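Progress against Task 2.4 (sequence-to-structure conversion) is shown through the following example record, which the project officer requested during the mid-term review.
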Amino acid sequence: MAPQLHQRPPFRAEHLGSLLRPQQLLDAKTAQEKGEISEAKLAEVEAHEIKKIVDIQKKLGYGAPSDGEYCRHMFWGTFFPGLDGFEEVTEFDQDIFRPYAPDIAAFLEAGHKPGETVLCTGKIKHVGSTYVDQFKYLASLVPKDEVKNLKITLAAPNWYHLRYREGKAYPKEVYSSDEEYFGDIAKAYQAELKILYDAGCRNVQYDDPNLAYFCSEKFLNGFKEDSANVYSADDMFEKYIKLYNDCFINLPADMHVGVHLCRGNFVGSRHFSEGGYDRIAIKLFQELNVHTYYLEYDTERAGGFEPLKHLPTHKNVILGVVTSKFATMEDKEEMKKRVVNAAKIIAEGNNISLEAALNQVGVSPQCGFASHHEGNAIDWNGMINKLKLVREIANDVWPNQL
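Structure tokens generated for the chain above:
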């Protein structure tokens, strides 16, 4: 039986999970870090602000509300530190990093040492979800028939592999190969997805700037010049595709999974890499077993829509044509034309009608508004205006569709 298009989720208007934190939440986090208030008091503030932001998302017409990642310091959250076999550290030799990995390079070029990281120190084992209670609270804020639409974002399974030099991602006495290491990572994600599923979660989005790094000539040149590497960049990309697919073994048929690719979204709206999807498109779209791709497309750094000709007819793409980095507003009519132009390429690639291709498409901001808890160079009203614009574009292109 041919694969089926999985929708609702995703919806015609989407956002990427992280939303600006209100000042009172930022103040509470700072106070808790200073020991001025308890963790319990911070949790009360978080719960209050999450309820408010869910209500705002619903009023704006978004079918897949998130908790804004309000309990997180960074977008990748606490999955890896919550596993046996990983340890969050602040003291480390910076030579463990690939200096050409775009986010690492940005720190080093600015004269900064990465402030924290998570290292594999032993056998990896899932010992309980650090997200499930957050999801359960989010689920308590919506009617039961809407719980299946709620979005939770997860860190990329390759997150603490690509950044490290060959041989530095795990101790050789613990894992003899990437395949063995990846095997336990995949098992950990399988366990996480089952726990979330049992709690009612049906909509997961993986956030993965790493995959977009394989579009960067600067990164690819650095990878090629690194004599320690035993694989080519293309080989590594294929390994990451397999890692993802192994994470999805036994995935229930009614659970929607997507992956978001961007080129960085750090404090001050900084990006880390550039390059179109062309060189990874076939493997990304045809071999990665996700239902939906959430793709950055707000500037020329992401290239053109041509790679979408490789998108199969049973998969969705959410076009991030509206920037979340700055408050300057896009022209709605121009964005609608861009959406249609992207659909035309999908239609031509699959020899289907424009109408059929548009059915595979949605629209969103290109990334979150606060991948880091401090947020992008955009204020609250700017974020709301962007979310309204995305909803208006969707309303015009797909009338009467959530």
